[in-house]
Amino acid sequence: MQPGSALVETWIPAGGFRIAKRRLQTPHHGIVTADCLVPKWENAQLTPVRPCEVQPCLHRVFAECDPDPRAFLSLANCYGLLTASVLRQPAPGQAIPASVLAPEPIDIWCALVREMRTCAELWETIRLGHGSLGAMAVNGARLSAKLAENLGRLRFTVSARYIDDGVGRFQLRYRSSTLGGALWQRMAEEITGAIFCTRCPAPRCGQWFLLDDETRNDKRYCSGACRSRVFRQKLKSDECPEISPGIC
Fold first, then answer.
1. Rounded to an integer, what distance in angstroms lies between the CA atom of residue 195 and that of residue 211?
2. Is-above-0.70 flag for pTM?
3. 173 or 45: which carries more pLDDT confidence?
């Protein structure tokens, strides 16, 4: 079975989102007023996007996000809402209005970012081998419990797709129904070794990027531009690095 977190689709309205107060029903059928992310224009057309294809290490970006509504708004305008279910593709020539997106409370973003940050910090402690074996075991148990708690709430879809690769086979794939679920799936994939994320060390960058089967083991920078910038800075400082700007 293949993970499908990179295939999760969200929808971004023309003009983006804004923060507005909305009246929402609570699980106990009460009514509360909360700050929510809503489309800037209700009749705007929606554009589909695959957030984890745009940024394969998006869970790391969320884990480092400031707990600020303005930061959440910026992420939503790039990657969509956390809880909006995947919509069916419209018929040719038919547009989907932004009004189909339900208001999404800011509190949902606060909770997800807080949990993501906790898990990322625990994982870094374990990955880097900080602390005694006993401490690592305790952190591992905490991380396992956090992942189980959040993954257990997710809704997934499963599909079987025929692949015409000269041999002919079916591939079983699952994916989360929401971006929030895909982020937890992505976090679990990194922790279990299914994917490998690293941060670009180039000055003024620090972007997370994915190391995959097609990436050389010695890749350190997210792009040729970053590596060339580091190379030029070392030349200016009269160093003679044994690296070439043409290798990423």
1. 7
2. yes
3. 45
